[in-house]
From TrEMBL:
The keyword Iron does not apply. It is found in: Secreted. Pfam families: Attacin_C (PF03769). InterPro entries: Attacin_C. The lineage of its organism: Eukaryota, Metazoa, Ecdysozoa, Arthropoda, Hexapoda. This is DVG-AP3-2. GO terms for biological process: defense response to bacterium; innate immune response.
Length: 134
């Protein structure tokens, strides 16, 4: 369940509570700020903070914070950068990606996304792994 508020200038706020069976609850506050917009270009910064509240007795509550930048050219082709940090396990997540809009009307959008993501902790690191989806 959640609530979101967006305005015509591309700024927005949201608050979401998610129940994950077998884990617990997550409460996320997020915001986006449109930095630049004209007929051809759109650049938006985003940030979030998540409070994870496991119902597993051995796991304490913990936070994840992150942010990123999204760029779109003519609402058709775009790129994104993102990073997040989870203090409890000292984990950092990174992502870089591209987006191609395949279909858009006033109420629907279908995009193809492809990119790379990685994580690192004091104990383990991943390489840049490909990811894609619609």
């Amino acid at each position: 369940a959640g609530v979101a508020l967006d305005n015509i200038r591309g700024h927005g706020l949201s608050l979401t509570d998610t129940h994950i069976p077998g884990f617990g609850d997550k409460l996320t506050a997020a915001g986006k700020l449109n930095l630049f917009h004209n007929n051809n270009h759109d650049l938006t910064a985003n940030a979030f903070a998540t409070r994870n509240m496991p119902n597993i007795p051995q796991v304490p509550n913990f936070n994840t914070v992150g942010g990123g930048l999204d760029y779109m050219f003519k609402n058709k082709v775009g790129a994104s950068l993102g990073a997040a940090h989870t203090d409890f396990i000292n984990r950092n997540d990174y992502s870089v990606g591209g987006k191609l809009n395949l279909f858009r009307n006033p109420s629907t959008s279908l995009d193809f996304n492809a990119g790379f993501k990685k994580f690192d902790t004091p104990f383990m690191r991943s390489g840049w792994e490909p990811n894609m989806g619609f």
